[in-house]
Amino acid sequence: xxxxxxxxxxxxxxxxxxxxxxxxxxxxxxxxxxxxxxxxxxxxxxxxxxxxxxxxxxxxxxxxxxxxxxxxxxxxxxxxxxxxxxxxxxxxxxxxxxxxxxxxxxxxxxxxxxxxxxxxxxxxxxxxxxxxxxxxxxxxxxxxxxxxxxxxxxxxxxxxxxxxxxxxxxxxxxxxxxxxxxxxxxxxxxxxxxxxxxxxxxxxxxxxxxxxxxxxxxxxxxxxxxxxxxxxxxxxxxxxxxxxxxxxxxxxxxxxxxxxxxxxxxxxxxxxxxxxxxxxxxxxxxxxxxxxxxxx
Amino acid sequence: xxxxxxxxxxxxxxxxxxxxxxxxxxxxxxxxxxxxxxxxxxxxxxxxxxxxxxxxxxxxxxxxxxxxxxxxxxxxxxxxxxxxxxxxxxxxxxxxxxxxxxxxxxxxxxxxxxxxxxxxxxxxxxxxxxxxxxxxxxxxxxxxxxxxxxxxxxxxxxxxxxxxxxxxxxxxxxxxxxxxxxxxxxxxxxxxxxxxxxxxxxxxxxxxxxxxxxxxxxxxxxxxxxxxxxxxxxxxxxxxxxxxxxxxxxxxxxxxxxxxxxxxxxxxxxxxxxxxxxxxxxxxxxxxxxxxxxxx
Amino acid sequence: xxxxxxxxxxxxxxxxxxxxxxxxxxxxxxxxxxxxxxxxxxxxxxxxxxxxxxxxxxxxxxxxxxxxxxxxxxxxxxxxxxxxxxxxxxxxxxxxxxxxxxxxxxxxxxxxxxxxxxxxxxxxxxxxxxxxxxxxxxxxxxxxxxxxxxxxxxxxxxxxxxxxxxxxxxxxxxxxxxxxxxxxxxxxxxxxxxxxxxxxxxxxxxxxxxxxxxxxxxxxxxxxxxxxxxxxxxxxxxxxxxxxxxxxxxxxxxxxxxxxxxxxxxxxxxxxxxxxxxxxxxxxxxxxxxxxxxxx
Lengths: 296, 296, 296
Description:
Chain A has 11 helices and 9 strands. Chain A has helices at about 25-40, 70-85, 115-130, 150-155, 180-190, 195-205, 210-215, 225-240, 245-255, 255-275, 280-295, and strands at about 45-50, 55-60, 90-95, 140, 145, 160-165, 170, 205-210, 220. In chain A, a hairpin with a 6-residue loop joins β1 (about 45-50) and β2 (about 55-60).
């Protein structure tokens, strides 16, 4: 038997806290979160299982969960509450029968008001920092297509169960003529090999469920949403036997470099986004794209 | 549908340019490049496919494409022209029926004139920076043995198709009593896992085509050169549907660290090479090696 | 044929030395090491094969090779001697029939005297630096369970042969409510993928021999200890054909970043350990744990 010190335990940026959430505090959280989110939460639903303490967070900005400012703000608020309430674990899924999330809402970039564009990108950064660096364990139950920003959100969780075989997932930005920011790439390289990531990112490839499983982009295949949720719960229940503090510190240590990178480069990354969407060529491209959608 | 900014788009070091090469400009390039390289290019042949815009670059310093200063200079010139002319893609192959490239020419290191030795190593660095960091997609059609520097060149491409089953490939420097420089190692770790790279580099192992496929050192096996070229073309034609600018930025983002490393350490790396070949023990080793070759 | 310079050859921190150990010097080493270790070495046995020059180093602090200060000091001394005597290779194994090493001795952390605690952790750091950065090739012949610190020692070798199928191996610190320090994690990520490492470290999973083989945590499975030793010898004999200097430089280049990290962070890492074991909560946890052991 053995015992090691944790180099992270004394890091000021990640304050460790008690690991166990008592059954009472879970019940309290259930009551509070249901009150909280049922009133405000139009775009994100939270349901907490009283027995397990696991929260199921459902994106419900139909039809395709395009990530606009409001959806991101609600998602941030939910993630923040789960963090503060020392959640036992979260399953992230979608209310759409065919799409997990279609990614960033391009209307946030088309003829943007600068204040809103800044808020939009900053909130996306904050959602990622909260999700990728969450203390509690996270699983994406991917019950539909998950391109680009949808894939980013799934990659930021610790485990991915995806309904097969007809859906696709990937950072396909290149196919759209754009490039996934550095922290999108970090999220992918945290999960698949450098080789697979370079091929996937340069070609903007979308993977079928089976292909995604093969390269490790997802961890398990499910037959339907209920099966995906069940498999996600099984993963999280396994985690509940482990010290929450130790688990969190191990996770944050593994994810330290990407998290520190975005914290250090937040402003620069924002400026690049703002500069990008203010380019006439980009606006013209969006204009054409939106026109083509109208004709359909 | 989604849209992301590119943090790279504003990077001053990699100037983005237009993605599409029109059919006319391809034809123009064909004419120009054939004129250009048929006159000067004794060691490297370039043939451009008018339909696809893909260039086939053939090393033809027979018998084994030892990389000496002149071959590297011609290779650099070809890569530079392809870059400036916004190539649709390049296939790198060999005119030898059995050797892709035998690696660096040891005569460049034996009793070296210092000026030439400096030019030799600097040109090798520049070829790598051009090839590993090329804007256009690159495939190595490895139609023969590919040890050491030959393997480096193949690893610097984005995709590798190798004729099987009788050839070998690897960074086998250790077998020769020397060590692959850091950027050789980066090139290998961009393709295979850290674990496989450590084993391969410490043992200097040469892999058969099938072994190379198994660990991911190559991507596909071909039955002969024509098959290798056909498979390389298929990969590149697939790439041609993607925005050249986005593709390039995604590639350079994935390869940013190794490229920046060599740019920052070019002088130091050169000094180490010059210091190395000027060691009496190294010269004695080369002397013995060349003597042993004469006796064969 | 080709030849490359070694950027490492001129690094002041790793002094290259002659590669070949003559047969005489091996015999001399055998005699000397047997004299040296038979007198002092109660916790570590060293036996050198006269034909191959390979040393078999056996941890024999029974029953479970808990890594206390004295075992670590002897291990350090052995590794240091092998380094100075230019060993042809080392096999690390255990005298226990069921445990390779149970990891760090928790009695070193329970109600610690500060001087001894400092010596304990510093010696562990030094053992790792010596073993992970050894010039000579190293194989762990894992003939029993190998959790936590036991796994660290095995991971620090260059090759792992493990007796199957009934034993387990892993960095299971999280299961014990603690976190593997950064350099433990580096050792694991040098061998398995980032993805597998994150899952293994957050869950503190112990892998069976077959599971460990599947993810690459070990390289080969053996039927018993003799078979493990034979397979380890085969790996090392293969290494003996390679220039010792080139091999060493290739290894150290691959392991440069983790080694440099601990050298740079040695004090901070020690302070974190000391701070950790001096926490009342940690002492209380150890107290309960040791009480529970007594009752068994």
